[in-house]
Structures are given as structure tokens and as C-alpha cells.
Amino acid sequence: MAFSSEIGGNETTQSIFAAPRGRLASLDAFRGLTLALMILVDSPGNHGAVFTLLSHAAWNGWTIADTIFPAFLFMVGVSIVFSLDRRKEAGSQQTIIRPILKRTAILFALGIFINIFPRFNFSTLRIPGVLQRIALCYFFVSLIVLKSGLRGRILWLIGLLGSYWLMMRFIPVPGVGAGVLEPGKNFAAWVDSHLLGRYMWSYYGGKWDPEGLVSTVPALATTLFGVLTAQWLKSSFSPGAKVMAMLAAGALIMISGLILGHWLPINKSLWTSTFSMFMAGMSVISLGLFYLLIDVAEFVQWSKPLIIMGMNAITVYILSIVFVHTLWNIDVQTSAREKISLHSYLFRYFHTPFGPKTDSLLWGLFVVFCMYVVAWIMWRKRIFIKI
To answer: What are the C-alpha distances in Å from 122 to residues 58, 126, 341?
Structure first.
């Protein structure tokens, strides 16, 4: 099965750490760091014992865990520009749209797969998810990139952020009213409950979903921030000017999100417009620093493990979920004839004198290491599954 490279994979490189023409090694490294953090956050040894920074904010506010998904979507936007520009040179829009549809379908199907793995119980199927949101953002933003220029993309960005803000603040929810942003009582949750019904995440009682349909609107804006950043990186300005502008623009976007957060809270679960802005600004700064160190200063050595992880990001992400879920669903019998999951059996060896949160963190790091070994083997064998 041959997949494309703009979301999570990479093209086969002439030199493994020298990106091919038109591709940024810094983007792979940033993606690899984001993937490692995503696996770490998703794979604690004990979900009830997690350090605050590695646990998502309960509602308003943010932690390190909340920066990961928007960073990934931002990089999807960056990659779309580099990928579609190459394809525009090689063929017509008709031949470009066909693979976009195919990749969207593959990503969405993979998201459904990991939602039902390993029990495959369709009666409890959750339709939304991380890969599903990536698929939708990839599809719609690819169309925007194909059909509009710089001015149009900026207008789309402003329109998406503004329209979502207006919907959430001024459209009344039956029995609740307008402007309520509480869990399960806001406009996004009301629409999702009618369109998705029981196919939302049961963790929240089926009342709302953090990757729901309506909150995908500002997620598209997050991806468009990546598109605009890629256009700047492809410009003819000097590398130094590009870095300075990215750092300044990122800081400005972050500050704007913080200020506007007084009227619309920064909230990942709702993916508020201010959340989209604040996290996009952080991603612009992060990519700017990676670009400065890796592509401009050519200080690459430290980033090699991250680049290896970033070259098969979607594949490794899926394998990490399959790995963890498999451990939870294999039963083993202890010496005391107690039947427990293989995960619980192995996790008991991660106990330290430093407490349950440290134990949980060490297990998460163990999973990250296992996935790095997988990524390293794929790199050594020049296997780059392009999704």
C-alpha cells in the first residue's frame, strides 16, 4: 500500500538526514518531537496518576499536553503547501484532487480502525477522533490551497475563526441559551449530539466530543496558519529574515490569543478561536527555532532521533495505540493465580520510590522508546510508509 508523504511520512532521501529539495529537515524533527510527546501523553502507566503538565486541562486553560494536537495540525498545513506545489507542477487540478480524496479516506478509515481496535464492537463505535480530524483538515485545507491565493487563504483563516466565535457566543442552545461554554451545554456539543448521537466518545457520557464536527471549524484555521507559514518559508527572503519574522509573528499571534482569551477562553476541548491562535503562535515559534538550528545553522546531530521519528509519524502513532491497547487486552496469570492484563503485569516492574506519577511517566517513556525502536528499524530498512 503506497501512501503519500505530506501528512506523516517522508520521501526516500538521498542522504537520510538531508531533506530533498523543497523539503525541510526541521519539519520532520518538529513532527518527531510532537509525535514523541503525543505517545507519552497517551500512554501513561496509570491514567489516574499523571503529572499535571502531561494531562490535558480539565476545561479552560492549557498544559503541555494541549499543545500537541494543534502542533500536528499546524504541520499538516505546512506540508500541504510543499506537497501540492510539487503536484501542481506535475499535473492538473483533476489529477491532484483524486489522491487528496484517497488520502482523506485512508486517514479517516485508520482513525475508525484504532477507535474500535481490538474488540471491533461497532455498537460502541466512536466516529470522531484524532486521525479523523486530521483527515478533514487535510481535505478542506487542501481545497482552499488549490482554489485560492494568499489573500483568499488569509480571508478563510479570519472567516473560520470569526464565524466559530460568533456561533459559540450568539447562537442559542435550546433549554440553555446563548454564549454558554460549559461541557455538554454549548452550541458545538448541541450540534454534535444531534448529528453524531451515540457515536461520540463515551468517556464524556456521549454528551460531547473533543474532536466533534463543529469544533473542526477552528481546527481548519490552525491548519491554515501552517499553510501561511509554509508560504513564508518558500519566499525569496533570506533565512535570517524568515526566522526573525516567524518569531515575531508567532509571539504576536500568541499574545493576541491571550488577550482575546478574556472574552473567549483558551479551551482545547472546544478548540476555541483563541486556543487556535495561541497554539498556532507557539507552533510558528517552535518551527522557526527548529528551522534556525537545523536548516540554517545546520546543527543537525542532536535532532537525528527526532527526524527518524518524524519520517513515519502517522504509522508510528497508529502502532503505539495498537501496542498499548493490545497490552491492555491480553490477560496473563500471575504466580498467585490472579488474572490481570499484560499491561498491569509489566507495569508493576516500573515501581520506584518516587511515587505513582513517576512510575506512570517511566512507563510512558518506555512506550516512546519502543516506538522509537520501531521507527529506527523502518529507517534502517528505508521503509517510509507515506500517508
So the answer is: 29, 8, 23
